[in-house]
Request: fold
Amino acid sequence: MTGKDEYYNRAKQEGYRSRAAYKLKQLDEETGLISEGDTVVDLGAAPGGWLQVATELAGESGTVVGVDLQRIDPIDGVETVRGDMTDEETRNRIIDRVGEADAVVSDMAPNMTGEYSLDHARSVYLARTAFETSLDLLAPGGDFVAKVFEGPDTNDLRADIDEEFEYVRTIHPRASRDSSSELYMVAKGRLTAPVREGDRIEIEIEDVGREGDGIGKVEGYTLFVSDTEPGDTVEVEVTDVKPRFGFAVQVE
Reply:
């Protein structure tokens, strides 16, 4: 049995609207995208296979919102927004409706032309649109995933995403067709810190943490600095940035 037949038949038997549902299941198994109680936004959600999986993973205490230009048949516990994700007005509606999300996921793909360079470029454009939308939606530490067709622009997109998250993985789910060039960029840990690794700044140490490191603040963001005491004003280099705190060392 081919991969296509296997996942198509499973979707029919298990009540999923598309075989793509298994891609999100497998991405979640590998990276822990969605947890109980999460707020999830699915961009380009029709016909709703990913929405079904997101609802299962987020549970009754979660919130799942699907967005697509096409009509999405109702799914229990899911809200839908009808609009074009490449349109700013649609993105603003989503932001106003959701506020903050724990995960933004996108399985958007362009209408295929058969000309690979054009299809690749369009897929990158859609993935970048989803990425830029995620920056407005995600809470600190939130996760993002988007589909893209592999090609010359993939690395630049990944580099841009990597700057805004703790790390990015590229995954080809088992449910993807063997012949498909599609891959999924999974970005974990949305960074909203006002500093980035390698930055050099002057900081005043205000307190001491449980491990004995000095604590300074940059626009409300916490930096732990070793070998410092309250009252010190030191120049530091940022060595590690997490969603809600970071680490730095003194510059000699």
